[in-house]
Design goal:
Elements (H helix, E strand, L loop, with lengths): L3 E5 L2 H13 L4 E5 L2 H11 L2 E6 L7 H8 L3 E7 L1 H6 L6 E4 L4 H18 L5 H18 L3 H14 L4 H16 L1
Parallel strand pairs: 1-2, 1-3, 3-4, 4-5
């Protein structure tokens, strides 16, 4: 099952949503009150569903989608003005006030969609992608999300899998180190 992360400035709102999800059979991986904490959590869990209760001052939904879009599904719950200001079409939106049933339905849909979208990288492919990200981080001074995005964009632009491009990066780095 997808890991569920709740992010929002209000601790009370985070706790209410966590209780609602738990009572509906969902397990919440973590609740985050700041964007930096949310990013660390997404890096730690590697993939999942992020439910944002409004916007965090240091983490806009569009930025989160840009940095982690292939790894997470985002549900943004907020006032209509916030939802309209969000530009990324991949972000699912739920306007307040929202019923418990609407929230549970949206989470169910996103967890199913997330499971279908998960890359089926196994063992050596995943290790290759992680090693290539580390190489990019060292050689280009990128953060982990930037290295992931660079791998992803190059692979998409050249019609190849990330694991293929990662293997190419590793091979080239060994050629320069020998």
């Amino acid at each position: 099952m997808a890991r569920i992360v709740i992010a929002g400035a209000s601790e009370v709102s985070r706790e209410q949503l966590s209780r609602l999800l738990s009572s509906s059979g969902y397990s919440v991986f973590r609740c985050c009150g700041a964007g930096s904490e949310l990013r660390r959590t997404v890096n730690e869990c590697d993939d999942g569903v992020v439910i944002m209760l409004g916007s965090l001052p240091d983490c806009k939904p569009d930025d989160l989608q840009w940095d982690y879009g292939d790894r997470i599904q985002i549900l943004l719950i907020g006032k209509p003005a916030l939802l309209e200001s969000c530009e990324a079409p991949e972000i699912f939106r739920l306007a307040l006030p929202a019923s418990s049933q609407a929230v549970i339905g949206a989470v169910e849909m996103l967890t199913q969609l997330h499971q279908m979208r998960l890359p089926k990288r196994m063992g050596t492919e995943k290790q290759a992608v992680e090693q290539a990200k580390r190489l990019l981080m060292q050689s280009r001074g990128l953060t982990e999300p930037e290295a992931h995005r660079a791998l992803q964009q190059y692979a998409m632009n050249h019609g190849m899998k990330m694991a293929e491009y990662a293997a190419q990066i590793i091979k080239e780095s060994r050629g320069t180190n020998e």
